[in-house]
Backbone:
C-alpha cells in the first residue's frame, strides 16, 4: 500500500517536474517558453454545451466570422475578425484565440499599460477594424470573450504556446523592397486581393478582405508594422499555401502592402 | 480633299463595322457557335454537351456553364486548348476555335440561364453533411480552407476567376477534384486547387461534390 502510494506520489512529482522544468529554466521569464513541438488543439465544436454559456460561445463565433453583420455598429471597414485570425481564430501563427486568451492580462508597449483581453479586443476594433471599440459591458464583448475562453479550454496558462501570435521572422537579408514586393503581390496576391488591394466580392458581399484603401485596417493596426505583416504572410498566405513564400519575399510583399494608402491612425487624427 | 474624304470614309467604315473578321455582334456569334459550331471543318456545337441554355448534362458529367463569369469560361477554353487543363472531350473540340469565337461563346454562356438539372441517382445525406462541414469550415488539420472562402458564400463564386460551384453536377465536381489531384489539370492559379485536392481524402472529395451539387445554382448577377 505504502509502496503504491509512494510510487504514485513519485510519479506525480516527476510529471510536475517535467511540466515545470522548462518554465523555471527559461531565462526571459515564462513568456519565452515553448510547449514542446505540438500545437495546441482547441476543443471540437461538438463539445460546446447547450444552455446560456454555449449560446454565448456560438454568438461569439458568429460575431467573429461575420463581424460586419453581427457587430455592425463597431465595424468601420470590410474586414472580419477571421480576416486575420484564420480558421475561426484557431489557426496557429495567425494570432489564434487560444494563444491570446492565456496571455492576458499582460503589459503592452503599445499603450504602456497592463491590458486585459477585453481591452486588447477593443484595440482590434479601433485599429484593425477601423471602427469603434465595443464597451466592456456590451453583449458583443461578452460573446467574444466567451468564445475565446471556450477555445482556450485546456491550454496551459502563462506560457508562450507554439503557434501563438504571429511568427517573428528573422531580419531580412536585404532591406524590404516595395518594388520587388509589388511584383510578388501582382503574381501571387492580386488573384484574391485585387490589383488595387480592394479584395473581392460575391453577390455584393465581401469575400476576400481588402488589404489597403479606406475599407481596410488603419495605420494604428498591428499589421501596419511591416515585420508583423511579413510574419503573417509567411505562415498563412496565399491561403492554403502558407510557408511557401521565402522570408525575403514575405518582407518585400509586406513592405509593398503597408506602403499603400489606408485610413490614418486614430491616435493621431482629431476625434470627430 | 480626296484624301480627307477617303480617310473619313475609312473612319466611318471602322465605326460601322467594328470587327473586321465577321461583322456579327459578339453575342449573336456566341449563340451561333453554341448552336452550330463556328463552321470550320470538324467544328462542334457547344450545345451538344452543355445544352443551349448552358445547363450541362449531369449524366455524362458535362458541367453547367450558364451564368459562369465570361472571363472564367474564356480562360478555361484557352487552357484546354493550350493543354494545361485536362479535358479529354473538350481538347478535341476547342482546337479550331479562334480567340474571337472563344470570347463570343464565353459571353453568350455567361448570360445564359438554366435551372439546376437533377443528378443521376439520389444523393447520400451522410456525405452531404460531411461535405457541408468541409465546405463551410474547412479541414485545417490538412491545411484545407473552407471551400466558401474562395468560391464565395454558398459556393456562388467570386468573379472573375473563382467559378460558382453551387448547383454544379456531382459527377463533374468529383471529376475535377480527381483531375486536380491525380491527372493533368494544371490551370489553377498558383496551384491552389491542386494542393487542396491532393490533400483531401477520397471520401472528402465525394462529400464536397455531393454537398455543392445538392445546392441551387446562383441567380446570375455578374458580368
Residues:
Amino acid at each position: 500500500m505504502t509502496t503504491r502510494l509512494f510510487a504514485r506520489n513519485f510519479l506525480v512529482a516527476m510529471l510536475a517536474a517535467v511540466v515545470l522544468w522548462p518554465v523555471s529554466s527559461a531565462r526571459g521569464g515564462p513568456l519565452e517558453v515553448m510547449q514542446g513541438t505540438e500545437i495546441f488543439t482547441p476543443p471540437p465544436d461538438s463539445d460546446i454545451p447547450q444552455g446560456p454559456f454555449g449560446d454565448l460561445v456560438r454568438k461569439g463565433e458568429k460575431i467573429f466570422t461575420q463581424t460586419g453583420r453581427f457587430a455592425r455598429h463597431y465595424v468601420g471597414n470590410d474586414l472580419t475578425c477571421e480576416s486575420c485570425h484564420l480558421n475561426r481564430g484557431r489557426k496557429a501563427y495567425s494570432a489564434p484565440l487560444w494563444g491570446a486568451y492565456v496571455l492576458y492580462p499582460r503589459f503592452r508597449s503599445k499603450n504602456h499599460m497592463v491590458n486585459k483581453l477585453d481591452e486588447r479586443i477593443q484595440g482590434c476594433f479601433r485599429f484593425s477594424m477601423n471602427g469603434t471599440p465595443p464597451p466592456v459591458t456590451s453583449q458583443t464583448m461578452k460573446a467574444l470573450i466567451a468564445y475565446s475562453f471556450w477555445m482556450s479550454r485546456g491550454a496551459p496558462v502563462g506560457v508562450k504556446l507554439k503557434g501563438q501570435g504571429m511568427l517573428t521572422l528573422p531580419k531580412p537579408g536585404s532591406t524590404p523592397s516595395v518594388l520587388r514586393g509589388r511584383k510578388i503581390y501582382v503574381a501571387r496576391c492580386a488573384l484574391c486581393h485585387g490589383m488595387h488591394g480592394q479584395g473581392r466580392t460575391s453577390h455584393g458581399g465581401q469575400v476576400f478582405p481588402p488589404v489597403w484603401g479606406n475599407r481596410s485596417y488603419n495605420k494604428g493596426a498591428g499589421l501596419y508594422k511591416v515585420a508583423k505583416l511579413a510574419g503573417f504572410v509567411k505562415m498563412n498566405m496565399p491561403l492554403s499555401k502558407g510557408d511557401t513564400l521565402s522570408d525575403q519575399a514575405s518582407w518585400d510583399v509586406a513592405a509593398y502592402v503597408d506602403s499603400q494608402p489606408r485610413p490614418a491612425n486614430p491616435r493621431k487624427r482629431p476625434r470627430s | 480633299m480626296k484624301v480627307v474624304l477617303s480617310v473619313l470614309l475609312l473612319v466611318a467604315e471602322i465605326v460601322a463595322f467594328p470587327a473586321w473578321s465577321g461583322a456579327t455582334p459578339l453575342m449573336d456569334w456566341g449563340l451561333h457557335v453554341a448552336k452550330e459550331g463556328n463552321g470550320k471543318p470538324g467544328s462542334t456545337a457547344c450545345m451538344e454537351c452543355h445544352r443551349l441554355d448552358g445547363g450541362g448534362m449531369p449524366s455524362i458529367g458535362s458541367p453547367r456553364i450558364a451564368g459562369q463569369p465570361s472571363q472564367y469560361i474564356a480562360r478555361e477554353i484557352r487552357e484546354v486548348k493550350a493543354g494545361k487543363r485536362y479535358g479529354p472531350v473538350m481538347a478535341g473540340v476547342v482546337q479550331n476555335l479562334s480567340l474571337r469565337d472563344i470570347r463570343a461563346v464565353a459571353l453568350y454562356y455567361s448570360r445564359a440561364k438554366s435551372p439546376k438539372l437533377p443528378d443521376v441517382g439520389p444523393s447520400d445525406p451522410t456525405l452531404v453533411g460531411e461535405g457541408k462541414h468541409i465546405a463551410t469550415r474547412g479541414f485545417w488539420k490538412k491545411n484545407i480552407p473552407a471551400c466558401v472562402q474562395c468560391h464565395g458564400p454558398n459556393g456562388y463564386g467570386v468573379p472573375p476567376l473563382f467559378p460558382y460551384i453551387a448547383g454544379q453536377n456531382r459527377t463533374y465536381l468529383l471529376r475535377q477534384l480527381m483531375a486536380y489531384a491525380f491527372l493533368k489539370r494544371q490551370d489553377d492559379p498558383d496551384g491552389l486547387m491542386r494542393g487542396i485536392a491532393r490533400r483531401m481524402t477520397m471520401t472528402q472529395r465525394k462529400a464536397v461534390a455531393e454537398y455543392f451539387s445538392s445546392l441551387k445554382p446562383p441567380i446570375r448577377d455578374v458580368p
